[in-house]
Amino acid sequence: xxxxxxxxxxxxxxxxxxxxxxxxxxxxxxxxxxxxxxxxxxxxxxxxxxxxxxxxxxxxxxxxxxxxxxxxxxxxxxxxxxxxxxxxxxxxxxxxxxxxxxxxxxxxxxxxxxxxxxxxxxxxxxxxxxxxxxxxxxxxxxxxxxxxxxxxxxxxxxxxxxxxxxxxxxxxxxxxxxxxxxxxxxxxxxxxxxxxxxxxxxxxxxxxxxxxxxxxxxxxxxxxxxxxxxxxxxxxxxxxxxxxxxxxxxxxxxxxxxxxxxxxxxxxxxxxxxxxxxxxxxxxxxxxxxxxxxxxxxxxxxxxxxxxxxxxxxxxxxxxxxxxxxxxxxxxxxxxxxxxxxxxxxxxxxxxxxxxxxxxxxxxxxxxxxxxxxxxxxxxxxxxx
Length: 385
Prior knowledge:
The chain has three helices and 28 strands. The chain is an alpha/beta fold. It is elongated, with a radius of gyration of 29 Å.
């Protein structure tokens, strides 16, 4: 009888231990589910915050970190004392993120948090720690020629595209007066897209009724403030010789009209510079050149006008820069001759007009627009880590 009672006691002990173990593992299972859900909530928040911050790297009017923190707060992250959010901008080289760097192209967001366990404290597990990091790369992919109104080629359009996409878009009408010939390099073909939100003429060569592009307004006041603080500021209109700016970087701001005269504006030695005119910007040169080899680091030369932008005289080649006008861009060419564009972007709120024709638009697969100080159309971001 005593032996039977002893066996019954042992069974009861094992049953009790088994029940306690089941309760503990059930509690752990509940917490594991909570951990998994909370981890992904933090990760999705870090992803969204990094993507938003990367899109504002080039916007001097909005701090990328403030954008990221605001978005995280909208997602309910960062309101608890246990949560810490760090935001930094830096450079992504294809495999790693580093900061600081001269020309930031990415944003990193890290969210750390500690949460008390729900039921796992039965197993002496008091809390769980989280650390979630996302890195987003800023990508700039504007059309090579973009007009807020009409694009007109009054001397024809004859181009052969090599190795990359050529996109020309008008938010109103795109018209080619003269010969129209758009072909690919047979050894290194690319894609050619002509589109207009209004009417494409001739209609057989492009798309009419296309979706319009949003063209962000340039923050001229922010550019002026940056020039006054750490760049070069001229209080009245003047004539510039671009060779005088060789080796300089940052913002050069002219409060008035500016005429740029030189046999070869820039000489290929300009890099990471933004030249701004509050009025009309006029080029008088046979060649306007930013970087002669943009594939080494991308296009980092920017010309911005608060009024119209005009290329006069004998200009026949424009290379290696972003030309942004709040008015129209007019390219007259050399005595009515064609103009060659190489790794160049024209963006205007008004019309874009080529009065002497456009010939031989050359772009390379590796060309990027790097670190402008203002928002550009086609600015996106993607997660890389």
